[in-house]
Specification:
The complex is a heterotrimer of chains A (227), B (222) and C (222). With 227 residues, chain A is mainly alpha-helical. Chain A contains six helices and no strands. Chain A is 78% helix and 0% strand. Chain A is globular. Chain C contains eight helices and nine strands. Classes of the chains: A mainly alpha (227), B mainly alpha (222), C alpha/beta (222). The interface between A and C is small, with 12 and 8 residues.
């Protein structure tokens, strides 16, 4: 059943992505000011949306663990955060490529970029911390605290383009009062978001299964050592 | 009583530190050395030093402060003192606030000592009008470093890889506050208005202090 | 009314139960010897009762204050004997910590070295100071984790005399131990912990004293 869901999602997302890429590369014209490179927005924005939402979701799951002490919340928090870190990396990389073309530099130290990089560092630290703690309940506790504190930074990053004058472009999506993009240009962002969200769901499911195995192995090891 | 417990812990940490002066000496020496090294890297006499004077100062404070903050809970490991403290009637929150205040006092003292060194080495123009804003940013910025450093000192105290994990976790978390402090300091030293940074720093301090006090018991006991 | 009520305590490390359905009611004035092999869960249980760890399930009710004496001596090397005891006196909220510290130093035979730094003491002296710290606030319930291990003869004598005087005053003692003889002599009750479960609890009988392995043979599973 689980395999069927994964394969189903993969096929759906793959097909959606393929169809969307077709739209992006053949149907849409180049953007007026940016030229061809603007198409990177179709990966940059969805990846960052997923990353940021994931970090926020991780925070709620961490609170869930602290309240219920159920290790499944922790497993889900870890899986979601790890996958979000991957998407944040994609976001940073795609942004960097775009910046090289448009601004002429690989990186700029404005508040949006800096705060997002800080998030990446914090949640990278989250994963490192998990590996440094042996006992599962202690690991879950510590990870939960880091996740909650780290989410404050995710929020700072989200608000950074409002609070400061940043080099990063202001919101253009219609949902953020950005005035929206030209007709037909905005939709592929949302389709890509859906496709990437499906892929992230698959990754989280795979990761959850790994966590389940790790948990069993840990218990068996403790049982063996207690004899 | 909470405040009395806090004071007992703060006094104990400061008393111990005054006895041994280990962290104090290391921290002062380190901050002077960093300021020296930076002056070789950047020509202190140039006009441009004004632009990143705040940055230099807070980098120095962050690194020198780490020496103090790392020891905060680590000093309790010797002889298993941490267990005795947690088992005593003193609450985890009081233990945390007591240690944070002691760390703050030590960090602030290191900063006050290194500030004249900085002003001297880098020929920073100085006027009386800058004293109060400078003190304010020192207090708010140092408190941010202290709160985060003390909480993570508690979190990493029992980890095998404490020496590695503490900087890894702490520095990224501090960056927003550091940047705010750096910007404000540069503005103060240049005589410019302070701007949004101060409100951000105050909000950051309040939020992280609340979070730290709420979570320190989870971190220490479970 | 029991001095210490442990109800349905479970402790999981991951999914592995280190403590299972542990229930103990300890009457005031009794001295309970908590016996069991290494890894049976004695230290885990004592840490939970002391408030150093949270149980995964179940609850602990303690009537009165607790004192703990564990493996570490829980003293600050850089403080003097007097300062150490005064500090803990303050942490325990005693009305006159300095006077009590002097009394205790007298009691454990360290009055002469009152102003000596703990780091300069011999091992036996440090142990006696640790005993002084544990009994300082005259707790209603005293938790001792393998107290007779690694004590020299003088420290053992001091500890035994303090335990006896606590018993005379109706205090409750829970003592985990391997050294069956010394513990069983002092104990009024025993509890045997095996693989996280209490397999026997009851009064300490003469038979247990005569044949120290009897308890394990009867209730253990070897």
């Amino acid at each position: 059943m689980r395999e069927k869901i994964i394969i189903g999602l993969a096929v759906f997302a793959g097909a959606l992505l393929a169809w969307n890429m077709n739209t992006i590369f053949t149907a849409l014209p180049d953007e007026l000011n940016q030229g061809a490179i603007y198409r990177i927005i179709y990966f940059h924005v969805p990846a960052n949306i997923l990353g940021m939402t994931g970090f926020g979701l991780g925070m709620f799951l961490s609170i869930g663990y602290l309240v219920t002490k159920d290790l499944r919340y922790d497993a889900l928090a870890a899986s979601v955060t790890e996958v979000s870190l991957v998407f944040a990396s994609i976001g940073l990389a795609t942004g960097s490529i775009w910046a090289r073309i448009i601004w002429g530099v690989w990186w700029a130290w404005d508040y949006r970029l800096t705060s997002w990089l800080v998030c990446w560092l914090i949640f990278g630290g989250y994963l490192m911390l998990r590996r440094a703690v042996d006992e599962p309940n202690q690991r879950a506790r510590f990870a939960a605290v880091v996740s909650i504190l780290g989410s404050v930074n995710a929020y700072i990053s989200y608000k950074s383009i409002e609070w400061w004058n940043t080099q990063h472009p202001q919101p253009v999506l219609s949902i953020r009062n950005g005035g929206g993009m030209a007709a037909g240009m905005e939709a592929p962002i949302w389709w890509n978001l859906l496709a990437l969200a499906c892929f992230s769901a698959i990754l989280v499911m795979v990761r959850m299964r790994q966590e389940g195995f790790a948990r069993e192995i840990d218990t068996l090891r403790r049982m063996a050592h207690s004899q | 009583m909470f405040l009395r417990d806090v004071w007992t812990i703060t006094a104990k940490d400061l008393h111990s530190e005054l006895r041994t002066k280990e962290a104090w000496n290391a921290s002062i020496a380190f901050s002077v050395v960093i300021l020296l090294l930076f002056s070789f890297a950047f020509d202190p006499s140039s006009e441009q030093i004004q632009e990143f004077s705040g940055g230099l100062l807070w980098m120095t404070y962050a690194f020198a402060g780490a020496l103090v903050l790392n020891r905060s809970f680590a000093r309790e490991l010797q002889n298993d003192c941490l267990d005795a403290l947690i088992a005593s009637p003193v609450s985890s929150a009081a233990l945390f606030v007591g240690k944070a205040l002691a760390n703050f006092a030590m960090l602030f003292a290191v900063e006050l000592v290194s500030l004249p060194v900085f002003v001297l080495f880098y020929n920073v123009p100085w006027s009386a009008a800058q004293v109060w804003p400078m003190l304010l940013v020192l207090v708010m910025g140092t408190w941010a470093l202290t709160v985060i450093g003390t909480l993570f000192s508690a979190l990493t105290v029992n980890l095998r890889l404490r020496e590695l994990m503490l900087p890894t976790l702490v520095y990224p978390m501090m960056i927003p506050a550091l940047i705010a402090a750096m910007t404000i300091t540069t503005n103060v030293l240049a005589g410019n208005p302070v701007g949004f940074g101060m409100r951000f720093l105050v909000a950051f301090d309040i939020i992280f202090t609340l979070l730290a006090v709420v979570f320190v018991d989870t971190v220490l006991v479970g | 009314m029991n001095a210490l009520e442990i109800s349905d305590v479970w402790k999981y490390y991951g999914d592995f139960p280190a403590l299972r359905e542990v229930g103990l009611n300890i009457a005031p004035g009794s001295t309970m010897a908590l016996l069991g092999r290494n890894g049976a869960g004695k230290t885990t249980l004592l840490r939970i009762v002391a408030g150093l760890a949270r149980p995964s399930r179940g609850s602990i009710k303690i009537h009165g204050s607790i004192g703990i004496l564990g493996h570490g001596i829980a003293l600050y090397d850089e403080l003097t004997a007097f300062e150490n005891l005064t500090l803990f006196g303050r942490l325990y909220g005693l009305p006159d910590p300095r006077k009590r510290a002097d009394e205790m130093l007298e009691r454990v035979g360290l009055a002469r070295v009152r102003d000596g730094l703990a780091r300069e003491f011999s091992r036996g002296m440090r142990q006696r100071l640790a005993v002084g710290r544990a009994f300082l606030h005259d707790p209603e319930v005293l938790l001792l984790d393998e107290p007779f291990t690694a004590l020299d003869d003088l420290a053992i004598a001091v500890l035994q005399s303090m335990i006896k005087s606590m018993r005379e005053r109706g205090r409750t003692i829970v003592m985990s131990t391997h050294q069956l003889r010394e513990a069983l002599e002092l104990a009024s009750h025993v509890a045997l912990l095996q693989r996280g479960q209490i397999v026997h609890t009851g009064e300490r009988t003469q038979q247990m004293l005569d044949d120290t392995g009897w308890l394990y043979k009867t209730y253990g599973d070897n």
